[in-house]
Fold this protein.
Amino acid sequence: MRSRFTYIILFMLLVASCSRKPTDAQQLSELPKIYPDYIGVTIPADIAPLNFAMADEQTTCIDVIVKGAEGGELHSNGEETDFDIDEWYALTEQNRGSKLSVTVCAEQQGQWKQYQAFDIFVSTDSLDDWGVTYRRISPGYEVGGNIGLYQRNIHTYDEYPILLESAVPGRCFNCHTPNRTDPRQLTMQIRGEGGGTMVQIDGEQRWLNTKTDSTKAAGSYAYWHPSGNYCAYATNTVHQSFFVGKGQRIEAYHEFSNIVVLDVRSNELILSPQLMTTSHLEIFPAFSADGKSLYYSTSDSCRVPAEYEKVKCSLCRISFDAEKGQFGEVVDTLLNGPMMDKSFTLARPSYDGRWLMYCQTSRSNFPVFHKDADLWLMDLQTGETRSIDEANSDDTDSYHNWSSNSHWFVFTSKREDGMYGRLYIAHIGADGKVGKPFLLPQRQPRKYYRDMMDSYNVPDFTKVKVDFNVREAHRQVYANERVPVTIRK
């Protein structure tokens, strides 16, 4: 009983010690070092509050005042900020198209210090999507543990599981893909025993066996046609090689990879044996905004993993006739990997048809394990390309997807420690200018990200919350009854 009483007293003293007002603060001309680094970021009006702490964990208390250029004010005092959500919404909405000025006072070793105020810019562009989906997986690269697909309401801090490994033990799953952020049409793949390609339309799951005599493996790396009648997949297997010593830890590679399109109305696969099902490695398909073209990456076949450094992907485009369900007969090479001595992967066209975002590395068709992976942007009106320096870092930046209105994109970055992928969101204007990205907000970000032992990957926006029947998925996996597909003649 005494120990409990002592704990309560200590807790009350701690709370009291972190609720003092700044007195005799030393005025500094430098910006505060905060975690996460939200200094100068561009945000949408109703994103979850950007709570932060001082990066120096010796700080005992911070006092923060946020003032809107167009009016309104917030105040927070404690070990870290904890802004009221409703007050935060009101302040950001009032200052849409303007900025917030943030003044930080920090108590360190009994002395208060007031830092130079910094700005947070509030875009006029909304981020109306409900949230983001992603897979969380420990960077141990093995099946087992706590692999899970999750969704997060980006306007609050609420996270919900979609599918956890505990429901299908020993299986690896990923490639969860909504149709242009609309999860009412959703596909994903489960690898291993009882695996298959799932297509869910309006809540009804259909589990397919997309491996045929004409296709070497099941479908993965999916992308929906805007009509919702088709879904493109790469058919491949993923292998891993590990390095000994310092530097790169792992190389992921594919011994083969081809691209097929599934007509979800008839369960027919559409092939192009001469162009898309070849001895080359065709991978990462993505339909254009108007559905008339399919972007993808391709590389020459080589002996992997021994010749892994020779994997140089070109970025290509082929026409697609949705009325006839046919590929075109000519491939356009937009960026030639071998000639440029680079590798271009993960093409993602904006849904308004204006931009094409992709990943550039020195080699490989699996950029997430490469420190030099950067995001690049192609202007589809002019063909000009550039590195998105405003968002890139000195470490891996990849796995990007667009918001439904094409004014925001989400991506993963290992910029913090080179090990764990975290989710960042960035704004892009009509002129292609990109704002400083911000780390996905958490209520207690320093504790959350310090304690989180998972990497985030394959993030995507969703217009609404994903409705997924886990019991049905479990039943289907263990029943192992798959709907066969046929090849369209």
Observations:
- The CA atoms of residues 188 and 325 lie 22 Å apart.
